[in-house]
Amino acid sequence: MIVDAFDAIQGLLGEPPFTVIRENEETKRPEDAPVITTKTKNIVLSDGTYASVTHTESVGGSLVDEKMPHLRRLVSSGDVLLGTVTCVCMTKLALKSALESNRLKVGALLTTAGVGRLAESKRGSRVGVYADCLDRLSQCCRVLLDPTLQATMKGIFVESCQQAYASLVNKQKAVKIKASEEDKMSRASGPDDLIQFRQLRAQAVQGGIEVDLMDADDISRAIGTDGAGAESSKLQHVYQLTGFSDPVYAEASVVVHDYDIVLEMLIINRTPNTLTNLTVELATMGDLKIVERPQSYTIGPLDERRLRANIKVSSTETGHIFGTIVFDNSSTAVKTYVNLNDIQLDIMDYIRPADCNNEDFRSMWAEFEWENKVAINTNIPVLQDFLKHVIASTNMTCLNSLDETNEVTAPSRRRCISSSLLLPLY
C-alpha cells in the first residue's frame, strides 16, 4: 500500500524539472491562434419591430489543451508550499517502506531537488520568501542521504509530526467551538427583550436620542467591540497637556482608528477671570495632517469646555502632536500662551491582533520584500516563553499557536526544534 501510494503521488507530480508556467504571447504561432469573426444581422421580432443580433464565431486554434495532472499543474504554476508538502509526504513514505526503499528514496530525492530548484528560481534575489520551504526540503534531503541522521529523525518524521499535527487540529477545533459558544452567549437575547425595527419606527422617534444609541450599538456590534473595552482603551491613551499650576488645565484622550485620529481635549479654566478667544493651536510632525481645528471659545471662571480635533494619518508610523493654548484675559486684556506637552503616537497603536489562515499569509508574504533577519540575544531559555514575549511586545497573534504540553527536552531541543514546532504546517 505504501509503494502504491508513492507511485500514485509520483505519477501525478511527474518528473522534474518543474518549470513555472507563463503565458508568452510571442511564442505562440500565428496559425495556432483562433480567428474570431463577428456577424451582425437584423431580425423581425414577434411584435413586428426590428432588432440587431450579433453572433461571434471562432475559427481555428487548438481546441484540446495539453493533458497534465492537476497536481503537476499546481506545482508548475508556482505553488511551492504544495510541492514542499508533497516532498515531505514522499519522504515519510520512503522512510516507512521496507520494500523497494532505495527506489523510493531516490524518487523522493529527485522530486525534492526539483521542487527546491523551483523555489530558488521563484524566490529570485529576495530574502526570506520560501525560506522555510527551502529549509524543509534540505532537511528531507539530509534525512534521505545520511543513514545516522535517518535513524535519529525517523521517529520525528513518522510519529512526532503526526502527533503535533493532530494536536494542532484538535486545538483549532476547540478554539472555534469556544468562540462560537461565546458568540452565542454574547448575542443571546432574553425572552422579554424589546425588538426594534428601524424601518417601522416613526420619524419623531428617529430624530431623538434613541436612534443614536441604537446606531452606536449596531456599530459596536459590527466591529466586535463592547463598551467596557472601548472605555478601558480610552483611559490608556489619556495625556496631560499642561501642568497643575498653569492658569488653564488641559488633558487629551487619543482614539486611533486605522487612518483617523480623534483628539478629545478637556479644557478647565482655573482662574477667577473669564478667558476670551481661547484657541488650541495644534501642529503635527510626521505623516499627520490636521483636518478639523478647534474653534475659539469663551470660558467663564472655573468653567470647562470639551474640544475635538480630527487628524488624518498618511502612513502608519510614529508621529508627534504639539501645540499651544492662546487666550485673552477679560480683566487685563493680556494675551497669554501656554505650551502643551507633546503627544507621541506609537506604531503599536495601529496594530491590532487578527486571525489569518496559512494560505492567505503565505500569499501575502510572497508579495512583500521587506523581511529582515535580526540577531537576538535573550535570557529566555524556552522558545514558547520567548514567542509569548514577542507577541505581547508587538501586539500581534501567532499564526499557529504552540501547544504548551508538547515541551521539548533540553538535550534534543537544538536537534528537533524546527521539526517539532515548525513542521505541523506540513
Describe this structure in words.
The protein has three domains: 1-21 and 67-174 and 354-394 and 396-426, no CATH class; 198-224, no CATH class; 233-350, Immunoglobulin-like (Sandwich), CATH 2.60.40. The protein has twelve helices and twelve strands. It is an alpha+beta fold. The two termini are 22 Å apart. Helix 3 (80-96) packs antiparallel against helix 4 (101-123), helix 3 (80-96) packs parallel to helix 5 and helix 6 (147-186) crosses helix 12. The strands form three sheets. A five-stranded antiparallel beta sheet has the order 3-4-5-9-7. Strands 6, 8, 10, 11 and 12 form a five-stranded antiparallel beta sheet that branches. The longest helix has 40 residues, at 147-186.
Task: Tag the structure with descriptive keywords.
12 helices; 3 domains; alpha+beta; 21% strand; Immunoglobulin-like; 5-stranded antiparallel β-sheet
Uncertain spans: 23-30, 204-214, 219-225, 405-426
Number of folding domains? Answer: 3
User: What amount of the residues lies in strands?
Assistant: 15-25%
Strand order, sheet with most strands:
3-4-5-9-7
Tally of helical segments? 12
List how many beta strands DSSP finds. Answer: 12
Q: What is the first-to-last residue Cα distance?
A: 22 Å
For the largest beta-sheet, the strand count, sense and barrel status come to:
5 strands, antiparallel
| Helix/strand order | HEEHHHHHHHHEEEEEEEEEEHHH
Q: Helicity level, as a percent range?
A: 40-55%
Shape: extended
Secondary-structure-derived class = alpha+beta
Task: Provide the fold topology.
Blueprint: H1 2-13, E1 35-44, E2 50-59, H2 70-76, H3 80-96, H4 101-123, H5 131-145, H6 147-186, H7 203-206, H8 209-223, H9 227-236, E3 238-240, E4 248-257, E5 260-269, E6 275-285, E7 288-292, E8 297-299, E9 304-313, E10 319-329, E11 335-339, E12 343-345, H10 358-367, H11 383-394, H12 413-422
Antiparallel strand pairs: 1-2, 3-4, 4-5, 5-9, 6-8, 6-10, 7-9, 10-11, 10-12
